[in-house]
Design brief:
By secondary structure, this protein is of the alpha/beta class. It is built from 11 helices and 13 strands. Strands 8-9-7-10-13-12-11 form a 7-stranded mixed sheet. Strands 2-1-3-4-6-5 form a 6-stranded parallel sheet. It comes from Chlorobium luteolum (strain DSM 273 / BCRC 81028 / 2530).
Length: 342
């Protein structure tokens, strides 16, 4: 292993299940250099027996991926698995008292019917973890042993809207939200798909899952309502475009009444004053400003005289939208500096 990437020599041990995907690789990179925890095992079903360096030479890691056979020897487990696979693994880890951070959508939704509608497949009614978005639920995360990491689109959109739904907000009530968000190709995972190849996506952009994207109920749940019985109109158009990483969301909000642009910006700045990774910017954010970081950049871009508000939100989908936020949550659960290793 590259000595420059070696992290702590003592402290809790960490294993990653699903370590060979893009999010798993980012988790590997972050844990290798984390100052407070030690990387123990890397599990990858399809890549078992291969070395990390054969897939990701830049990590400078010569460990071998292993097949997960139900071991519970580590202190902390990150699950970076396809949706539907964590349900079979998490109960045993919970029973063993392990700290678990799940990056899939298996445990995000409280509503069983919504889970089945948007994700497909059955979900146990009691299969719920603490929904772990640090900016909204830091205290709950600190007291949890198992948490569900937010989705990438959901992170960008929820953080872009949360100040409008805060109990302390003096801004007019939200009547509707129209969201258009573009994601980089890595959001689809590492598996090869012709329609996501460079030849298909270079100089191209297209919408998909309009109105039925699986992050929709997660967004509504975090904002205090539901996809089945929403308290405001919400439309979501996800796009995929020719960039590797990043999410860029434009949120067009209609309020019950007009709001001053300076007042709206001040409300956002106050809401995120103690959030180390959410930056309310005075200038228009860009994907390149947050790529390879755990930041979410927000900009209140426009306020119209008839109650319209436009917010732009951007994140790195593999970091703040996945691995980085997962490590942030681990830090909170361990009671250490939230920014450690990030």
């Amino acid at each position: 292993m590259n000595a420059s990437l070696d992290g702590a020599t003592s402290g809790p041990t960490v294993s990653i299940i699903g370590a060979s995907g893009y999010s798993g690789a980012e988790l590997t990179r972050l844990i290798l250099r984390h100052p407070a925890v030690r990387l123990e095992h890397l599990y990858a079903f399809s890549q078992a027996g291969k070395s990390v360096s054969s897939l990701y030479p830049a990590l400078g890691c010569d460990r071998i991926y292993r097949s997960y056979e139900g071991e519970t020897g580590s202190d902390i487990y990150f699950l970076a698995l396809p949706h539907g696979e964590a349900h079979a693994i998490v109960p045993k880890l919970q029973a063993a008292g392990k700290m678990v951070i799940d990056l899939s959508g298996d445990f995000r939704l409280r509503d069983t019917d919504e889970h089945e509608r948007f994700y497909g497949g059955r979900k146990s009614p009691d299969a719920v973890m603490t929904y772990a978005m640090p900016e909204l639920s830091r205290e709950a995360i600190a007291g949890a042993r198992t948490v569900s990491n937010p989705g990438c689109y959901a992170t960008a959109i929820i953080l872009g809207l949360a100040p409008l739904f805060a109990r302390s907000s003096a801004l007019p009530r939200v009547r509707s939200v129209a969201c258009t968000a573009i994601s980089g190709l890595s959001g689809a995972g590492r598996s090869s798909k012709t329609e996501l190849s460079f030849a298909e996506m270079s100089e191209n952009i297209r919408a998909y899952k309009v109105g039925v994207h699986q992050h929709t109920p997660e967004i509504m749940q975090a904002l205090g309502t539901s996809a089945r019985n929403p308290s405001f109109d919400f439309s979501f158009t996800p796009l995929i475009g020719p960039l590797v990483r990043g999410i860029y969301a434009t949120l067009s909000v209609t309020l019950d009444g007009p709001v001053d642009l300076k007042e709206a910006r001040s409300a956002y700045e106050a809401f995120y004053r103690n959030a180390p990774f959410t930056r309310v910017r005075s200038e228009m954010p860009e994907v390149r400003h947050v790529a390879h970081t755990n930041f979410c950049d927000l900009h209140v871009a426009y306020a119209g005289q008839h109650g319209t508000l436009t917010i732009v939100s951007t994140i790195d989908n593999l970091l703040k939208g996945a691995a980085g936020q997962a490590v942030e949550n681990m830090n909170i659960m361990l009671g250490i500096d939230e920014t450690a290793g990030l």
